[in-house]
Specification:
With 458 residues, this protein is α/β, with parallel strands linked by helices. Helix content is 62%, strand content 8%. Strands 3-4-5-7-6 form a five-stranded mixed sheet, covered by helices on one side. Helix 5 (103-122) packs antiparallel against helix 6 and helix 11 (314-323) packs parallel to helix 12 (341-361). The radius of gyration is 40 Å and the shape is elongated.
């Protein structure tokens, strides 16, 4: 008479358990069969050569020390045949060299050899009173392999290796020879500790490496943003200069028929076309730069009413620097120099940024500002030199709260705009030097860069 069949209520539960077990087994098999970055050496990405060679040296040291030791213990202490002991010892230790580049594959070889070794020791004469199924030298080699494995593989793979090690020990437990010391619990616990510590170190190293990469990217983005902000600032300032010239062109073209008598009809129409084009260009430029002007207005609480500064305002700038605690000597040409607006503004801003840097980084340092022209009248030289700050240096108030804070980046952009040259660097006595050469007449390229099309792309 057959027994009672399972009730429908019990069948789904059993199926769910079996399905979950099959899924877990599938995950373990997949993880144990899918190595991470096979062929890539441990520490292969470090810069120091001795660190790249270190895993090979450690693996070689373990292999050459464990191989004779394992052969001796298996043959003499456990009583295995010499040939079998040599084969098992080689399979348990030689793959440690493979673990430097392929630790998961090395684990398959060593784990299989350890299982075969445990089976061989079951019937050995010397196993009584000794460690089984994992002899001491097997435990040492296995833990060394776990270090390499934890530094390379994913957490799920490490868990699969750890559980597989524990399951193997549990299966061997009923076959423990009489008088032998069971070591599967010891290996299971030590394996978990080593894998956890190695995985923690690997994750910390990965986090630090990603942090360094993000810092590098952030620094590059910060430098790029600073450069774009300074170019935007220059575009806003030079917009006023271009707008002035365009307004003059418009007025001259509109008033030409009234100021010049006897103009032919074609000339009057040409002047009218020039005036209309100038007005259209001026309106387009103002419209394209309206967003920049709005941001500047919001930042300062209202529209700018002061004219763009030039070298004629350097005495006032120097006076403010002296009040900030920096002794400054100013040297300007005796005769007034007719400068293009772009050159005049660039010279002032270069001196402004240089003095601001002195106040920030070398408070109290004696500073000399010199503005001279070349003998042939082709270039303007702006020189700002400061000595080392006195010790101890007391912090002083910033020169201007509205400064760009972009320092040398802004200087280089302004010099590049007018096709000049800039030379900056520390001095032997601990001071700093800023020297700019600006052409008294900007090249055509500088004028082209101020066109409405380019200004709108800033």
């Amino acid at each position: 008479m057959s027994g009672p069949s399972p009730t429908p209520a019990h069948e789904p539960t059993r199926q769910r358990v079996l399905r979950a077990a099959r899924q877990a087994l599938h995950i373990v098999v997949v993880e144990l069969g899918t190595p991470t970055e096979p062929g890539t050496p441990l520490f292969g990405s470090v810069q120091k050569p001795w660190l790249r060679r270190l895993p090979y040296l450690v693996a070689f040291g373990f292999a050459v020390s464990l191989l004779p030791t394992t052969i001796t213990i298996l043959s003499h202490d456990y009583g295995l045949d010499g040939g079998l002991a040599g084969a098992l010892a080689t399979a348990q230790t030689a793959p440690l060299l493979l673990a430097v580049t392929r630790p998961l594959q090395a684990w398959w070889v060593i784990f299989t050899a350890d299982i075969l070794c445990a089976l061989a020791l079951t019937g050995a004469d010397g196993v009584a009173g000794r460690a089984w199924p994992w002899p001491p030298m097997v435990i040492v080699g296995y833990l060394a392999l776990m270090v390499a494995l934890s530094l390379r593989e994913r957490s799920r793979t490490l868990i699969a290796v750890w559980l597989t090690t524990g399951v193997a020990g549990i299966l061997f437990e009923p076959r423990t020879p009489d008088g032998s010391d069971g070591t599967w619990v010891l290996l299971f616990v030590l394996t978990g500790v080593v894998l956890m510590m190695g995985a923690t170190l690997r994750e910390r190293g990965d986090a630090q490496r990603k942090l360094i990469e993000q810092e590098t990217i952030s620094e590059a983005e910060r430098a790029r943003r600073t450069l774009l902000e300074e170019r935007t600032r220059i575009a806003r300032e030079l917009h006023d200069v271009v707008a002035h010239h365009m307004s003059v062109i418009t007025v001259q073209a509109d008033s030409a028929p009234y100021r010049l008598s006897g103009l032919p009809r074609e000339a009057e129409e040409e002047f009218g076309s020039i005036a209309a084009t100038a007005r259209e260009s001026l309106a387009e430029m103002r419209r394209l730069l309206g967003v920049l002007r709005s941001e500047e207005t919001e930042r300062h609480g209202g529209p700018e009413k002061a004219p763009q500064p030039g070298i004629g305002m350097l005495p006032k700038l120097v006076e403010g620097t002296v009040r900030a605690g920096v002794p400054v000597e100013l040297s300007l040409p005796e005769d007034r120099i007719p400068l293009e607006p772009a050159v005049d503004l660039s010279a002032y801003r270069i001196v402004q940024e240089a003095l601001a840097n002195v106040v920030r980084h070398a408070p109290g340092a004696r500073t000399r500002v010199s503005v001279t022209t070349a003998a042939d009248g082709s270039r303007l030289t702006v020189l700002v030199v400061n000595s080392a700050p006195p010790a101890p240096s007391a912090p002083s108030a910033p020169l201007e709260t509205t400064g760009t804070g972009h320092g040398l980046i802004g200087m280089r952009e302004r010099v590049r705009l007018v096709d000049g040259s800039l030379d900056t660097g520390p001095l032997p006595d601990g001071g700093f030097r800023v020297a700019a050469q600006l052409p008294l007449t900007p090249p055509p390229a500088a004028a082209a860069s101020l066109s409405p099309k380019d200004s709108g792309s800033v």
